[in-house]
Amino acid sequence: MNIDFAKQKEEYYKAILSGVYIDPDYQSKKVACKVCKDDFYYINSKEELLKLIEETLKDNENFPIEMIKLMTRFYYPGADSIYFHEKEGICSCCYANKPKDSFRKMIKTLFKM
């Protein structure tokens, strides 16, 4: 019995893709974080991805850190997560490090409603 692993893998990838919603109107774009001003990319092509890799990865740096930097700078159609908070216009790093509202401020906000 011969198993065609290449065909099985292709079917596996197609099954994953069929379970992912991809916005038909998705467009490439670049936005800047309102806090740190770093660019975040919505990519839609191999060329855009390769250019971003070239711009982001540095030969003499710590490779795992460089990969984290790369992965948090872009979104592609069908990705599971996005590292940019569109509503607030800030990257995930700035969002994670922004000052949190105090408990007192949250209570005041609730009672104003």
Brief summary:
This protein is α+β, with helices and mostly antiparallel strands and about 110 residues long. It has helices spanning about 5-20, 45-55, 65-70, 90-95, 105-110, and strands at about 30, 40, 75, 85, 90. The chain has one domain (about 25-110).
Radius of gyration: 20 Å
Cα-to-Cα separation, first versus last residue: 68 Å
DSSP strand tally: 5
Instruction: Report the total helices.
Output: 5
SS-based class: alpha+beta
Largest sheet: 3 strands, mixed
Overall mean pLDDT stands at 88
* Global shape: extended
Q: How would you describe the overall organization of this protein?
A:
By secondary structure, this protein is α+β, with helices and mostly antiparallel strands. It has one domain (25-112). The protein has helices spanning 5-18, 46-56, 63-71, 92-97, 103-112, and strands spanning 29-32, 39-42, 74-75, 84-85, 90-91. The strands form 2 sheets. It has a 3-stranded mixed sheet with strand order 1-2-3, with no helix packed on it. The longest helix is centred in the N-terminal third of the chain and has 14 residues, at 5-18. The protein is extended. The mean pLDDT is 88.
